C-alpha cells in the first residue's frame, strides 16, 4: 500500500497531525489532511440545530443549499459585474417595503446589509444626519445628539451610540413596564433627541414594544413641546413575523412616525447568516449625503454599506425563499414555528419550578424564570440549583439554552430563553421537553448545591 492510500490520514509518514495554533506553519499539508483536521475540530462546536440560543437561520432546503454553493463567489458590491444579483437585491427590499406598508414603495430607499447590526447603524445615522441638517438650517447647535431606547436594546445600539457619538438615553425596564411603552417618554426627550428606537421582538424576552403607543406618546410630545421626533423600528426578528402572523398589528409604516425599519434576513427571513435589510419610509427620510454612487452598467447605482465587499449569495437565497414560499408559505412556516414555541412555553409554564416571563408569545421566542412561589401561591420552594445549572445540564444532552440576567432595572432577575426556528419540529420539541424534565429531576436529586456557575462570567454574551 502506498503511503498516500493509508487511512486514517494521520498514520501517513511525514503528514502533520497537529499544527501550530498561532503561526502559519512553515510547510503545507495535503488538502485532505488539512480538511480532516479542521472538520474534526469543528465537531467540538455545538450542533447548530440544537442551538436554541441563536436567532439565526440554521436550516435551508437542498435547492437553497445548491444556490448557495453556486453563488458563494459573488461579491455584493460588484453591481456592474453582477447586475442580476444587484437587481434581485433591489427587488427584495422593494418586496419588503410593501410587506411593511410603505406609503409609496416606488418612492423609497432600502438596501441589504450584512445583518441587522449594520442596518441599525444606518437607521441611527439617518436619524442623526436629518437632525443635524435641521438644526444647522435653523442656526442651532449640533453638538450633543441623543437617542432614546429601552435598556433592553440589543448591543448593536450601544455600538451605534459609541461609534457615532450619540448619547444613549436608556429607559429602564421594570416589572410594571417590561418593555419601552411610551411611559414617561416626556422626561427623556429634548431638542437634541434624534429619534426613539422601538424594538419588535426584544432580544431578551421576544416581547414586542408597542410601537403605536410609543408613536402616540411622541404625537402628544409634539403637540405640547413642538418636538418632531421620529421612530426607527428595530424589527430584527419581528419584521418577518408580524406581517405574517399579526397582520392587523400596526407597528410599521402605517404609523406616520416610523421613519425606518430593519430586519435580519438571517433570522425569521429564514436565510443562513450574513443578511439584513433596512427600508426608509420615503427617499427624504434617508439624507442624500449618506448615499454613495457606484458604477452600474454604465449608469450609477445608489449604495449604502459600511463594508465594501460582502457575500452576495444570501441575497439570492432570500429571493429564493420569497419565490418558493410566497406569502402563504411564509405564513405557514412562521405559524408552525409559533405553534411549536407555544407548545414548549406551555409545557415549561406547567412545570412547578418555572414562571413564564410573558403570558402570550409575540415572536416564537420566550423566556422564563424560576418560580418564586409554589403553584398554590405558598412560600418559596427550596431549590439547590439555578437556571445556570440547568443550562449546563441541558448541554449534556446537546441542547444549548442560555441563562442570563435581565438588563437594568431588572438585573437581579435571571431568565432562560428559547428561540424556536424553522427546523425545530414538534417531534424534536417533545424530545427537548423530555430532556428538560430529566435535567430538573437530576438537579432536584442532588444532595448538595452545585458551585455557582453564575459567578464564572456565564450568561451575558449568549444572546448578544
Ligand atoms: C432586536 C435586535 N436587534 C439587532 C440584532 C442584531 O442583529 P444581527 O445579529 O443581525 O446583526 C438582534 C440580534 O439578535 C436583535 O435581536
From TrEMBL:
It catalyses: L-glutamate + H(+) = 4-aminobutanoate + CO2. It comes from the Bacteria. Keywords: Decarboxylase, Lyase, Pyridoxal phosphate. Its EC number is 4.1.1.15. It holds the Pfam family Pyridoxal_deC. One of its GO terms (molecular function) is pyridoxal phosphate binding. Transmembrane segments: none annotated. InterPro entries: Glutamate_decarboxylase (IPR010107), PyrdxlP-dep_de-COase (IPR002129), PyrdxlP-dep_Trfase (IPR015424), PyrdxlP-dep_Trfase_major (IPR015421). One of its GO terms (biological process) is L-glutamate catabolic process. The modification N6-(pyridoxal phosphate)lysine is found at residue 267. GO terms for cellular component: cytosol. Its cofactor is pyridoxal 5'-phosphate. Belongs to the group II decarboxylase family. This is Glutamate decarboxylase. It comes from Corynebacterium variabile. The lineage of its organism: Bacteria, Bacillati, Actinomycetota, Actinomycetes, Mycobacteriales.
Amino acid at each position: 500500500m502506498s503511503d498516500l492510500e493509508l487511512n486514517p490520514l494521520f498514520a501517513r509518514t511525514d503528514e502533520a497531525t497537529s499544527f501550530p495554533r498561532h503561526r502559519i506553519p512553515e510547510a503545507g499539508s495535503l488538502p485532505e489532511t488539512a480538511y480532516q483536521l479542521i472538520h474534526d475540530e469543528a465537531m467540538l462546536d455545538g450542533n447548530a440545530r440544537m442551538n436554541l440560543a441563536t436567532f439565526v437561520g440554521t436550516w435551508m432546503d437542498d435547492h437553497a443549499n445548491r444556490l448557495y454553493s453556486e453563488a458563494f463567489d459573488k461579491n455584493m458590491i460588484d453591481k456592474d459585474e453582477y447586475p442580476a444579483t444587484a437587481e434581485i437585491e433591489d427587488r427584495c427590499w422593494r418586496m419588503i417595503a410593501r410587506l411593511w406598508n410603505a406609503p409609496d414603495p416606488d418612492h423609497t430607499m432600502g438596501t441589504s446589509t450584512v445583518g441587522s447590526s449594520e442596518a441599525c447603524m444606518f437607521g441611527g445615522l439617518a436619524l442623526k444626519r436629518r437632525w443635524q441638517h435641521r438644526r444647522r438650517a435653523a442656526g442651532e447647535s449640533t453638538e450633543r445628539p441623543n437617542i432614546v431606547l429601552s435598556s433592553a436594546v440589543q448591543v448593536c445600539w450601544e455600538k451605534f451610540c459609541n461609534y457615532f457619538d450619540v448619547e444613549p438615553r436608556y429607559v429602564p425596564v421594570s416589572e410594571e413596564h417590561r418593555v419601552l411603552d411610551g411611559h414617561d417618554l416626556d422626561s427623556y426627550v429634548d431638542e437634541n433627541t434624534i429619534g426613539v428606537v422601538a424594538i419588535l421582538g426584544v432580544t431578551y424576552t421576544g416581547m414586542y414594544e408597542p410601537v403605536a403607543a410609543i408613536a402616540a406618546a411622541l404625537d402628544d410630545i409634539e403637540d405640547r413641546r413642538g418636538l418632531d421626533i421620529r421612530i426607527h423600528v428595530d424589527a430584527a426578528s419581528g419584521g418577518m413575523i408580524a406581517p405574517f402572523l399579526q397582520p392587523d398589528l400596526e407597528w410599521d409604516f402605517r404609523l406616520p412616525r416610523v421613519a425606518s425599519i430593519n430586519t435580519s434576513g438571517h433570522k425569521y427571513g429564514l436565510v443562513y447568516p450574513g443578511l439584513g435589510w433596512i427600508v426608509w419610509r420615503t427617499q427624504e427620510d434617508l439624507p442624500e449625503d449618506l448615499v454613495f454612487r457606484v458604477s452600474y452598467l454604465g449608469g450609477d447605482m445608489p449604495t449604502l454599506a459600511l463594508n465594501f465587499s460582502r457575500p452576495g449569495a444570501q441575497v439570492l437565497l432570500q429571493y429564493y425563499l420569497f419565490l418558493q414560499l410566497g406569502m402563504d408559505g411564509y405564513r405557514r412556516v412562521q405559524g408552525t414555528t409559533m405553534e411549536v414555541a407555544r407548545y414548549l412555553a406551555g409545557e415549561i409554564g406547567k412545570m412547578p419550578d418555572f414562571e413564564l416571563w410573558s403570558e402570550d408569545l409575540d415572536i416564537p421566542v420566550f423566556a422564563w424564570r424560576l418560580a418564586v412561589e409554589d403553584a398554590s401561591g405558598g412560600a418559596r420552594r427550596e431549590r439547590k440549583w439555578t437556571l445556570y445549572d440547568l443550562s449546563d445540564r441541558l448541554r449534556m444532552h446537546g441542547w444549548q439554552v442560555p441563562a442570563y440576567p435581565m438588563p437594568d432595572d431588572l438585573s437581579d432577575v435571571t431568565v432562560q430563553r428559547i428561540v424556536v426556528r424553522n427546523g425545530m419540529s414538534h417531534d424534536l420539541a417533545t424530545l427537548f421537553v423530555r430532556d428538560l424534565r430529566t435535567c430538573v429531576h437530576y438537579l432536584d436529586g442532588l444532595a448538595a448545591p452545585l458551585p455557582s456557575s453564575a459567578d464564572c462570567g456565564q450568561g451575558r454574551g449568549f444572546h448578544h
